Amino acid sequence: MALDRFRACLIALAFLATSTRAQAPSKERLAIAPFESQGGGAPADFSGTAIRDGLAGELGTRFGFQTTRLHSEDRVIGRFQDPNTQLLPPAYRTGVGADLALTRVERNWNDQAKRERAGVLLTGSYEFLGTELRLIAVALDPWNGKELATAMVQGATEERFVLEGKLAGQIAMRLRPPPPQAADPTRSPAPEPEPEKPAEETETAEGHYENGFALTRRFDQTQDVKYLEGAKDEYRAALALDPDHFRSLNNLGTVLHRLGQYEEAIGYYQKVLELNPRYARAMENAALAYKALGKNAEAGEMWRRALEHEDRAEVRAAIEETLKRLEAEGN
């Protein structure tokens, strides 16, 4: 009898082990969330669930992924403070106070993806820009939160299904990088030429800038700080390809500023001013960063420089008022 019970236990353990292995998270198993609208006047019959369904079909049929379609369940997971909601001197901030509390809201896609034993969580957004549609996708590991891939496509609205196919192709390529070539022992080692990417996959500084700009706008609309982190990575990628890409330098400075990384932000504002010594907005932003660090003398110097080039009367008046307050604080 005891031997029979022992055998039964072994069989049960073997079954459990097999079941666990069969359900282990796999990068081939994708959980896809409905895409979020970023505005622009979507047609009445257009929705984020339709894009989710289109991508699930493309990734499953064309690329052989196992796909699961997730459904919306919202929850508020906490709050945080952003000391730089608007990167303007306090005297001419409009509408929002400096100490605004931002609500961080996330859908529980991670929990749903884990329940499905998915190794990849795919989220995204869509935005109508006149006659064009922009789709952005972000692939994450739901088990550790690591970003695995990002992709963006943009084109004519009537070509929505073509855009979904291109987006699926980018995602598949980035989730399944080509394996390294095995060395041929009969030949001398020689570098292989890099395969040329299709036109839509060629990396450019402008492409990374556009990705970063879209992610920054998404932060402005959702107040979810992870989009600022993504924008920071995109602007850095743009500068790796073109170190003098002016808009990426400036926008990276403002993103770092919003994240409270003032010293590094000032470094990028200075690079912007090396390229355009008359750019008043970079001077004003640098002054704000110095003020946040408690360096009032440097902040005052930057605001005085900005007065030499700022042509907006209301901004000039606000800077002058700010300088008066700084001088009063110094006395």
**Continuous helix count:** 11
- The averaged pLDDT comes out at 78
String of helices and strands: HEEHEEEHEEEHHHHHHHH
Q: Would you give the CATH topology of the largest domain? A: Rossmann fold
3D structure, described in words:
The chain has 331 residues and is of the alpha/beta class. The protein folds into two domains: 26-79 and 86-175, Rossmann fold (3-Layer(aba) Sandwich), CATH 3.40.50.10070; 205-330, Serine Threonine Protein Phosphatase 5, Tetratricopeptide repeat (Alpha Horseshoe), CATH 1.25.40. The protein has eleven helices and eight strands. The strands form two sheets. Strands 1, 2, 3, 6, 7 and 8 form a six-stranded mixed β-sheet that branches. Helix 10 runs antiparallel to helix 11 (313-330). The longest helix has 21 residues, at 2-22. The termini are far apart. Residues 13-22, 77-106 and 195-200 have low confidence and may be disordered.
Notable traits:
2 domains, single chain, 6-stranded mixed beta sheet, 11 helices, Serine Threonine Protein Phosphatase 5, Tetratricopeptide repeat, Rossmann fold, 8 strands, alpha/beta
